[in-house]
UniProtKB/TrEMBL annotation:
Belongs to the ligand-gated ion channel (TC 1.A.9) family. This is 5-hydroxytryptamine receptor 3A-like. Forms serotonin (5-hydroxytryptamine/5-HT3)-activated cation-selective channel complexes, which when activated cause fast, depolarizing responses in neurons. Its main location: membrane. PANTHER family: NEUROTRANSMITTER GATED ION CHANNEL. InterPro entries: LGIC_TM_5-HT3, Neur_chan_lig-bd, Neur_chan_lig-bd_sf, Neur_channel, Neuro-gated_channel_TM_sf, Neuro_actylchol_rec, Neurotrans-gated_channel_TM, Neurotransmitter_ion_chnl_CS. It is found in: Postsynaptic cell membrane. One of its GO terms (molecular function) is extracellular ligand-gated monoatomic ion channel activity. CDD domains: LGIC_ECD_5-HT3, LGIC_TM_5-HT3.
Length: 459
């Protein structure tokens, strides 16, 4: 009687066991799938070794955690999904209460040895402990991991740069004869899905993800799937904390032309501003990598502004030297004027004394003219003495002409010297130099900034 009832129950359920008697273990028992069954875990799951296992790969970008330019590192948080077919797994869901998939420990089945070429450090978090199989023999493994990978950074346009970092998936030991890789999504789908699941981007803005497949040209090579992640740096923080302060220091250097050159305040101010730019250059050196194919524009920006400010400092030193020279010349002129006044006083005194002696000599001669006859006063001269006197007279006359010519030459030289040594001459020269240099400096700074920002925009 009980047997008849059981048969009648099977007839009503079309040969399917009641749900309270169905379990995942019934499926595993049907497949004889256990940890000790080497059929599933030891070798590639194909019945004919000449047939390759086709592995489909899907990658989603969850977050861009960090990009270290100094070490050329890219640290993303990604979600990977691998699917392949196991030829030893299949069952009819109708025989097991509609069960069409089962979750198993990952170590029970064979898993493709897919790795990432650019990965430099293994994820410290353990991989997913489970995988999923379905009634058609498809196996799926999902895993999330933090990747520390190498990425060649192009920092020429830093901080307005766009970086492309690759994640290249391939088998470790299997060639195209054993494993064929293929992406399960295209570039558009990968980009859209990644944007939907994106959690955080920090400094970088995710732009798109490009999927490229490099199929092996022969059976001894390997298939490679390359996911290229394109991202753009958020440059606002660098503009506010670096580019604008350097530009402010340059404006301060331009404003320093309004400071008087007579004291040392202008020189001290320029040196202080120059040291401030040097500190910012040291900070920049900590950010940028030690080697690069091209000098970054931000380095050119800092070095150019540093060179312009250094040139301005040298011009200030020159102007202060000219003003100091003028001040020294004024002091020398005062000393010369004092000495010339003393000499004039002495000359007048000597002239006065000599004038008095001449009067006395003239008076004596007049007395002799009045008192005595000329024949008694004039000495008797000889003919030889008169010739000698005439020769001396001509020689003295010639010497007098030469002295007059020398006096004219010295007067001309002294007039030029006085023209140069006029009070305030070097100060006027310094002001002209300062004015011309300011126009030149402002022109060069404007051209330099226009060219740098044009390069940043076009690159």
């Amino acid at each position: 009687m009980m047997l008849t009832g059981f048969i009648f129950l099977l007839f009503l359920t079309d040969g399917v066991l009641p749900e309270n008697n169905c379990s995942y273990q019934d499926v595993l028992n049907h497949l004889q799938l256990t940890k000790t069954n080497e059929l599933y875990s030891m070798t590639r799951p194909v019945k004919n070794y000449k047939r390759p296992t086709r592995v489909s790969l899907e990658v989603l970008l969850y977050a861009i955690l960090d990009v270290v330019e100094k070490d050329q590192k890219f640290i993303p948080y990604v979600w990977t999904v691998m699917r392949w077919h196991n030829e030893y797994i299949s069952w009819d869901p109708n025989q097991f209460c509609g069960i069409d998939n089962v979750s198993l420990p990952a170590e029970v089945l064979w898993i493709p040895d897919i790795t990432i070429e650019e990965m430099t450090e293994k994820d410290k978090a353990p991989p997913s402990p489970y995988l999923t199989i379905n009634d058609k023999g498809d196996v799926e493994v999902q895993n999330d991991q933090v990747l520390v990978s190498t990425c060649r950074m192009h920092i020429y346009k830093f901080p307005f740069d766009i970086q492309n970092c690759n994640l290249s998936f391939k088998s470790i030991i299997h060639t195209a004869k054993d494993i064929r890789l293929q992406p399960s999504d295209n570039s558009t789908e990968a980009t859209e899905w990644s944007r939907d699941v994106m959690r955080t981007q920090y400094e970088w803005l995710f732009l798109n993800m490009t999927v490229t497949t490099n199929n092996a040209s022969d059976l001894i090579s390997q298939d490679i799937i390359i996911y290229t992640i394109t991202m753009k740096r958020r440059s606002l923080l660098y503009i506010v904390n670096f580019l604008v302060p350097v530009l402010f220091f340059l404006c301060l250097d331009l404003a320093s032309f309004l400071i008087s050159d007579s004291g040392g305040e202008k020189l001290s101010f320029k040196v202080t501003v120059l040291l401030a730019v040097t500190v910012l250059q040291l900070i920049l050196n900590e950010i940028l990598p030690a080697s690069s194919n091209r000098i970054p524009l931000i380095a050119v920006y800092c070095i150019g502004i540093f060179a312009l400010m250094l040139l301005s400092l040298l011009e200030t030193i020159l102007v202060m030297h000219l003003i100091e020279k003028d001040s020294q010349a004024s002091q020398d002129n005062k000393a010369d004027n004092g000495r010339s006044k003393d000499c004039n006083k002495r000359s007048k005194a000597n002239f006065h004394n000599s004038h008095q002696e001449g009067n006395e000599w003239t008076q004596c001669g007049c007395i002799y003219d009045v008192c005595e006859t000329p024949s008694e006063l004039l000495p008797v001269t000889k003919e030889g003495n008169s010739r000698k006197v005439i020769e001396e007279y001509h020689a003295l006359e010639k010497l007098s002409d030469e002295l007059r010519e020398m006096q004219k030459t010295l007067s001309l030289l002294l007039s030029n010297t006085k023209e140069v040594a006029k009070p305030g001459y070097w100060t006027r020269v310094a002001k002209k130099v300062n004015k011309v240099f300011f126009i030149f400096y402002l022109t060069v700074v404007s051209l330099f900034l226009i060219i740098i920002f044009f390069k940043w925009n076009t690159g």
